[in-house]
Structures are given as structure tokens and as C-alpha cells.
Amino acid sequence: MTPKFWEFHTDNIHALDGGAFTLLTIQYNLAGGTLAAFAEKRPELRPLMDKIMKFDVSAQYLLTEVGHGLDAPNLETTATLLANGDFDLHTPHPNARKYMPPTGPFGGIPRIAVVFAQLMVNGENRGIRPFVVPLGDGKEMCKGVTARVVPQRGGIKPVDHAVTSFNHVRLPATALLGSLARPADLRANFISCIWRVSVGSLALATMAIPLISVNAYVAARYSLRRIVTASDGTRVPIMSFRTQQLPIMHAIAQVAVMRAHADDAARMYRDVSIDHRVRSGIAATAKASMTHHAWSSLATLTERIGAHGMFEHNNILQSELLMRGIRIAEGDVLVLSIRLANELLLGRYSMPKPRHPDCLLSRHEAGLFAECRSLLSKAGGNHRHESLARLLLPRCLPLVQAIGHRMAYEAALDANVPRPLVDLYEAGIVLFDSGWYVESAGLTRWDQFEMEDKAINAAMPHLEQYLLSLGADAYAVSPILTQESWEAFLDEMPIYTGKAELSLLSTPALQSEPVVVQAHL
């Protein structure tokens, strides 16, 4: 995993097309990354690896099934060894269909996949293995392979997500990636087979950087040009209001800090001297914190551009919906957090120690750990105790986010990120769990508001510099960016005119003078 691999995932170009990004990261990280580990010792795999890298084929990664998502170790697709050394790949029932990688026969590009199945040898289940499987030639599916393309995900660029099944598909012996032998530890074998999922947890998390970068840039430029009339009659840009400055400046601060965090996390993840469980924890904490920043910031930025935020052509809503998918893909954030928090609390391993242990965010992390350890102690150290299912599980995600926040903050300090942005990031994290800082850090709510206010005041004079540092100008294609682009956009819209006349209210007829009739008796 070279620096270029990580840089690829943080490139601002991905903010333009989440569908293309989905295909690219599956291709290069999941499918290509899995195959590369075997191609090093198996020359016959290298031509296929070359086609994957050149995108001469579309490569997919079929792990989870309709009935097995979070419990993927229990997947039911089988690959049975035949007498001649070939394999029979089969989907035994509808719940064992693979879900939801794109596998349809589109674009004229051949499609292959790394498919995970239970290896069956002489009636014995020898655990999960990856297999290289041809899916189709780009025009039709291969014999025995069926793709049921599901409806499009709302709001993002189209991807042909599908439910895929195999009806006794014959595979050559070379399709197996790995050994026929039964592993000593089936769970450890499964983890080693899907190791690129952990890589993807970190890589996908860093997608938060381009999504926030480009959309914060658009929101800021729009806010600088959008003029309103104040109560005293003066005309001012909406960026002059604090309610507009706060979400935009917080988003810019998050980008600056996350860039440092991404570099630091990737450095540690590449370090094979670090326990692989800790490296997976580094990926999980980054995903928990980064995707939360993106999810919350994009939702707020969507609102801050008013009605424009509801339309896909301005990309912000589309980016928000893409981030929802990223929080689930390559490890659901909540599940990753529950697993990591439990293992840390049980003392199975530890995350890297704080480099700035006296900072507020480090104290917050330590405080949440203490709360959770207290709950575990009350349950007699039994992490499966019923009370922990009620009280501890909901606290796992905030704990893992707190670790990520601390690691991001210290990475930003060590990388010399501009101090106003670091301070603003810190203030935002404090407000995220305001109650704890009131109770345990001696910061009243007013102290916290003043902390944020001071950071914003220090950052605002550098707004233009910070916007340029986002590197988003070339990728900000929203029509609301300038008055000229907005008018050009309107000129391209369908125009309807006519000469119809429609009367909505009838004119009442004039009433005549009342006639008086006298009766003579």
C-alpha cells in the first residue's frame, strides 16, 4: 500500500461522481488488493492482475450475502472440490445470494469477481476461501451466473448493485486463492482472507476529506456572493452572519485536521511491526470519527444553501447520501466500534498512547474509558452480561469516536496545521459532548461557546487562504457557485411560455335597486 494508494482515496475528483468512486475502490482495493497478495507467488495470476490495474476488466468483491452481512463468517455459498481438481460453485438457497456488489452485464467490459465461499472437500467444511470467478463478458452473464439488479440508491450516481447467485458453476483448480488444507483456526483464516476490508475501512473513511472539501468550498463561495437586505436596509452577504460562518468554518477545520489524521493513520497502518488488531483499530477509529464529521457537516451545509441544497445538481445532498453508504461499506461503523471497544475494555490490546495526554480531547477519551470500565466492573467483568447489552453497547460508538478525535487532534498539532483551525476543531469536538466537559472538565456551557467564538474570530480573517488550501476550485461544478454560472444554468433549463388566459375570479354583477312592492288590502 503505497502513499499513492492513500492519496487516490482523498482526491477531490471523487466528489464529482460517487458511483465511479465505488467501482474504483472495489477494483483497486478489494478485488485487486486480494489478488495481488497471491499473484506475487503465482505467475499465472499476473495477466489478470494487469487487466485489473488497467481496468480492462471490471473486478468485483462478493463476500456478504442476503442472509449474512454482519455475520459473514457464516456465509453459505459453497465451493466443492471435484474429483478432477475443479470446483463446483453453488448458491444453495435465496438467502445465500451475494449482495450487493455490481455484477450486471453492462458497458461491454468483461466482469470478474473475487467470490468468497465455504470450501468443501470430501464432505468436510474447510473454511472460507476466495475464488476468482468470471461473471460475464459485458454483454451477457456467464453460464450459471445470475445477477438481479436492484433499484438505484436514492440521490447518487447510478451503480448496478445486484443480488448475485451461482448455479453449479464449474471453476478450474487455479480459481482457488489459498490452500486446500483445513486451517487450525477458522476465524483467523476468515480474517486473513478478508484483510482488504480493514484496509477499505480506513481508505473509505478518508473519502470524507474530498466530500467536505468540495462542498464546503461551494457553500462558502455561495455564501460570499448571496446578498440579503439587513434590518437597517444595508445589503450584506449571508457569510457575514455567524450562523453561516459556523458550519462552513467547522467543515474547513475538519478537512485540515482530517488530512493530518489520514496521513498519520496510513503511516501506522502500513507499519507491520504494529499488532494487526491495533492497525484494524486505527482504521475503525478513523472511520468512526471521519465519517461522522462528513455526515454531520454535509447535512448542515445542505441546509445552509437553502432550497439549492435539495437538488442533486449542487452535489451536497448527493455527497451526504454517499457518505451514508460509506458508513456501512467495508465494515458498519457501529459494529466496528462495538467490536473494538469490547476488545479494548477486556484488555486484549491497546490503541497507541496519547502523544498529548493533557489535552482536552485526550482527557475526554480517558473519561469515557473510565465510565465504560466502571460498567464492566459492575457486571463482574462479564462482557456478555445482560446489563452491558443495555448500557455499554450504546456507549461503544462515542468511545471509539473519542479515540479518533484525540488521534486526529494530536496528528494536526504535530503536523503544524494552522492553529485557528486546530482550535476550532477542538471547540467543535467539545460541543459534540458538551455535558461531559461540564461535568468532568470544568467547562461551563458558556465557556464552551466562548471557546468556539474565539476560534472562529481567529479563523475568519484567513477564510480566503483556507478556501484555496482546499484545492477544490477545479471540482466545484455547482451552478450556484457564481452569478454567471447560475444564469448559464437557468438558460439551459426547459422554458415554457404561451398566450393562455385563465380567469380565476368572476366579476360580480351589479345589483339593481331593490324593488319595493306595496300591498293594498
UniProtKB/TrEMBL annotation:
<dbReference type="InterPro" id="IPR012258">
    <property type="entry name" value="Acyl-CoA_oxidase"/>
</dbReference>
<dbReference type="GO" id="GO:0033540">
    <property type="term" value="P:fatty acid beta-oxidation using acyl-CoA oxidase"/>
</dbReference>
<dbReference type="InterPro" id="IPR009100">
    <property type="entry name" value="AcylCoA_DH/oxidase_NM_dom_sf"/>
</dbReference>
<dbReference type="InterPro" id="IPR036250">
    <property type="entry name" value="AcylCo_DH-like_C"/>
</dbReference>
<dbReference type="InterPro" id="IPR046373">
    <property type="entry name" value="Acyl-CoA_Oxase/DH_mid-dom_sf"/>
</dbReference>
<protein>
    <submittedName>
        <fullName>Acyl-CoA dehydrogenase NM domain-like protein</fullName>
    </submittedName>
</protein>
<feature type="domain" description="Acyl-CoA oxidase C-alpha1">
    <location>
        <begin position="211"/>
        <end position="344"/>
    </location>
</feature>
<dbReference type="GO" id="GO:0071949">
    <property type="term" value="F:FAD binding"/>
</dbReference>
<dbReference type="GO" id="GO:0003997">
    <property type="term" value="F:acyl-CoA oxidase activity"/>
</dbReference>
<dbReference type="Pfam" id="PF22924">
    <property type="entry name" value="ACOX_C_alpha1"/>
</dbReference>
<dbReference type="InterPro" id="IPR055060">
    <property type="entry name" value="ACOX_C_alpha1"/>
</dbReference>
<dbReference type="GO" id="GO:0005504">
    <property type="term" value="F:fatty acid binding"/>
</dbReference>
<dbReference type="GO" id="GO:0005777">
    <property type="term" value="C:peroxisome"/>
</dbReference>
<dbReference type="GO" id="GO:0055088">
    <property type="term" value="P:lipid homeostasis"/>
</dbReference>
